Amino acid sequence: MIEWLLAPFVYDFMQRAFIAALIVGGLCSTLGTYVVLRKLSFIGDGLAHASFAGIVIAYLRGGSFWIGAAIATIVTALGIGFVHRRANVSLDTAIGVLFTAAFALGVFLMSRSSRATLDLQSFLFGSILGVSRDDLFVVLGLGLVVALVIGALWRPLLYTSFDPVVAQAAGIRAGFIDYVLLVILALTIIVSVQLVGIVLVAALLVTPAAAAAQLTQRFVPMMLLSCAFGIVSTIGGLYASYELHASSGATIVLLATVIFFAALTASVSRRPRRVP
Amino acid sequence: MNAVEVRDLHVRYDRLEALTGVSFDLPEGTSLGIVGPNGSGKSTLLKTVAGLVLPSAGTVRVQGTAPRRLPPGTIGYVPQIEDVDWKFPVSVRDVVTMGRYPRVGPFQRFSENDHRAVARAIEALDLGAIADRHISELSGGQQQRVFVARAIAQEPQLLLLDEPTTGVDAATEDALLDLVRGLVADGLPVLMTTHDLDRAAEWFDRLIVVDRKILADGVPDEVLESGAYAGIREHTHTHGHRR
Predict the structure, then answer these.
(1) Do the Cβ atoms of B176 and B165 come closer than 8 Å?
(2) Domain extent at residue B29
(3) pLDDT band for position A118 (50/70/90)?
(4) Which residues of chain A lie closer than 8 angstroms to B95, CB-CB?
(5) Which of A24, A95, A164, A202 has the most CB atoms in a 10 Å sphere around its CB?
């Protein structure tokens, strides 16, 4: 049994993949609590796609992947916030416009390039098995920054998630908190996209938190459960993909989805009155 | 000193002039009622004092300062309709505890004083028995009490209540009246909108009648006996018919 459990770890690249999966799974699903409660699922998806433009530009110019993705994603995140606040455009419309634009820009630039085309598949589902040592340090560093920001601002983040109007009247700068959340969301997405791909990031930001919301009616337990589900999905999915010789990203998403439906079933059977 | 000073206030929503040339004072330790027909700008006036709506002209001063420049925790606001997600994972106690959040800095822990303020607010609104319930399990009156409790736990220096008695039972209304009179007696200035003209004299030291501008301003009994009162009655009536 132990031998079976440790089998994947004989490879360096597998060790790195498991560490990356642990950090990304925990980070995305923890932040996902805010994403789900603030109904920002579409934003997570949008920012993940937007990062693609930055990745392509960085690739074509031979620049740093991280810097390219960071610029594209943060600019899109702030753009979404700005367009929504200043113009008379609803949030989902602002996101719909901006993220498709950023994604299209990436595809446009790639299609005009004479250099060998990027492997689109690896950006959709990631290449967690190709994580380098340097990547791990960047992930760890950005992960710590995000954790620190959540730690410092968790009260205003919670208050403005629940009741932004009254929070602002009480002197909490709700607009500033919104922008901070968008930026740390963008950072998390940038970190995660290279490792696990666009589709997986969007799933990890929503599915574990949505599963946790089925099982508890308190905020802190929801965040802890979400984090646990995220880590179980990424680690478990990585194991399963190793055993099944399947795409790691897709296996992780499918495992997270199985957890979600299990939670849904558990909550429905526990609260039959709630079923419409 | 005045807790609130509003001078020649104009507020526009797009092309609609919601308030025009409104001026009044709220002295420290007194209560001021705002009455007026539906759509008269009562709630807008409260939101402007709270700093949630910016004036297009004129000034609002709370303790001599623009509302948005006040230290966190100064203004306690209870909106008319709580537009919150009732499935949000918080209990009654969690919501009341949020009242303290503006006063607690990053990485700071809750002090003895913070815990006491929350306990007192729960006690004052008689929420002890339901403190651990999820917010989706509350009646309308209980919901209103929770949001008033959150504002009280904040220990604000100005309390803004937007029609707190609309849609609550008689017992809750009496309890809120006692609470507000007690807070005012302890020196807290209160600004509140209401539809209930009959009990205005019990609630307020002074009353203003608003219909985009100020129609009357004075002691409740005098204001209600003046013509402005009849005007509102008719107005409210026709509004009701049109809907």
Answers:
(1) yes
(2) 2-74+157-242
(3) low
(4) 162
(5) A24
Distance (Å) from the C-alpha of residue A190 to the closest C-alpha of chain B? 26
**CB-CB neighbours of B64 under 10 Å:** 10
Q: Any idea what the CATH number is for the domain that residue B167 is in?
A: 3.40.50.300
Q: What is the pLDDT of residues A36-65, one digit of tens each?
A: 999 888 887 888 888 877 777 777 777 777
Distance separating alpha carbons of residues A164 and A174, to the nearest angstrom: 6
Q: What's the gap in Å between the CA of A12 and the closest CA on chain B?
A: 38
Closest CA relative to residue A200, chosen from A247, A244, A242, A245: A247
Interface contact B102-A218, CB threshold 8 A: no
Spell out which residues of chain A touch residue B94, defining contact as CB-CB under 8 Å.
218-219
Nearest-Cα distance to chain A for B21, in Å, is 23
pLDDT in tens, B53-67: 999 999 999 999 999
Closest Cα in chain B to A149: B106
Instruction: Report chain A residues touching chain B, CB-CB < 8 A.
Output: 37, 151-153, 155-156, 158-159, 161-163, 165-172, 213, 216-219, 221-222
CATH H superfamily, domain A10-266: ABC transporter involved in vitamin B12 uptake, BtuC (1.10.3470.10)
| d(C-alpha B33, C-alpha B81), whole Å | 18
pLDDT of residue B231: 57
Rounded to two decimals, the ipTM of the complex is: 0.91
- Residues B182, B197 within the same domain: yes
Could you identify the residue written with the tokens 């409260």? B46
